[in-house]
Amino acid sequence: MRIAVSGSIATDHLMTFPGRFADQLVADQLHTVSLSFLVDKLDVRRGGVGANIAFGMGQLGTAPVLVGAAGADFDEYRAWLERHGVDTDSVRISETLHTARFVCTTDADHNQIGSFYTGAMSEARLIELKTVADRTGGLDLVLIGADDPEAMLRHTEECKTRDIAFAADFSQQIARMNGDEIRILVDGAAYLFSNEYEKGLIESKTGWTDEEILGRVGHRVTTLGARGVRIERAGEDPIEVGCAEEERKADPTGVGDAFRAGFLSGLAWGVSLERAAQVGCMLATLVIETVGTQEYQLRRAHFMDRFTKAYGHDAAQEVRTHLR
User: Fold this and answer.
1) Model pTM?
2) Which of the residues are catalytic?
């Protein structure tokens, strides 16, 4: 099963200021703020939901096709993804813009000042899925993740026109999209991903009830935080899968992307929805134990030992045949 993952590609530049922002602000001069903070720590991390999901799938050996836009500074990031099993040949490289990046400074009180530069991400709307499908010999499923909003709409419409199954996963972009746009992204999706809060927001913005949405999508996949995930299909009992036990909680960033990577890999393997969700939850657990969205290592024996403990020998035996 050939799966393409469309979504943002970005780097995060995270800095730490040892003092307090509040101590540097003068109440009656806030209209002319001019400040510079001497930071003592800088972490540069690879990110972007499209790249995060593709990285996880590559770790699981399912050879995803990454679809997105980056800048001429993408070479090192590209090499990293390709070393981890991701097909990056369908990434558009901008001639004028840098890869999207998030720059954030955190103070001693955990307050943050950040900026997001969209950069080359705005050119994702120029990517045609037909070109991707022709290059790869066809696409069985396209995940349409958070990206340039025009790109998300274009990819969705093209999937419908060309009869390519698609998964709707607009996550961070749901806040800026209106009801009409969300209805386009949802209607006809084979899978609709969201967390519990986004689930309610989708219903509020579209004006559709939960039952109406279930009638318009193949499966509704709702992540439930520490309680795992629920998968629903119209006319069927829901499937609920719990999380594997954590060894520690280091950083929740990218946990949802990791779940999607595991779940989509399960679909690529052809296992049941329950089993695919278990793989997703296990991968998400590895990510929450690691600082950084792509800094975890998937050691097969370790993964299977913990998967067996969480979901049993029968489930592990089925997954083991696919996880090389």
Assistant:
1) 0.92
2) 257
